[in-house]
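tool_call: predict_structure(chain=1)
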Amino acid sequence: MNTLTLAISSSGFTFLCTAMGAAFVFALGKAKRKLFTQLSLGFSAGIMIAASVFGLLIPSIDDARNSGAGVIPPVMGFALGVLFLIVVDRLTPHMHLMAKSPEGIHSKIGKQGLLFIAITIHNIPEGMALGVVAAAAAAAGDAQGAGALIALTLGIGIQNIPEGTAVSVPYYAEGRSKGASFMLGTISGIVEPIGAVVVVLFESLVVSLMPWFLSFAAGAMLYVVVEELIPESHSLGNEENDLATISVLSGFLLMMALELTLS
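tool_result:
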């Protein structure tokens, strides 16, 4: 398959996983499930750490070495990815799941709208990563490249399920209908297909600068993990924090197993 088909297929799958998670609003009702949210955030963090290291950073380093480019592309690409998310984080009004106050520039957007924006920001680097790895898989044209894309797609898809739930359930708890809450939870994941397609539209540039783009996506993903997911997953008591730590490590082990099995 060509790059665009790979990007649409992989990001379409992760989008459907978000919709699957949002559909839990029909079963969970208005119950508050802070521990569930924490464990989901920790699990997502573990998956994103492993995906960034095994699926993005190591291939970036290998490509840079093979091309004789040295350390500059992986290091600078990573730094640019972090800087990109810092700028987006500072300029965009949003509110994280477990936070008490909004971040970014001041706005009159309601709490649930700010939460929606936060999840959308979170999904930007994931969509970019899918597009970059799709371009790498198409350029490589071998089973290893396809396996790397499948592993990343499965990992992001798995962690998108609780994210969809984390958006839809609070909307319902605030008084919206289940149908409207489901739609809002689903739409929060639309940025992933958009991000993947935007990246592959510049396929020739991406392929020529592959180490830069791989490490850029890794830096952006790890920024989300360090700035948002891990702190928010450890915001309750000591016993709950131990469970959150286990969930982070469980997510990492799952993604590592997927990478080793499929790549």
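agent: The chain has a mean pLDDT of 86. Proceeding to next step.
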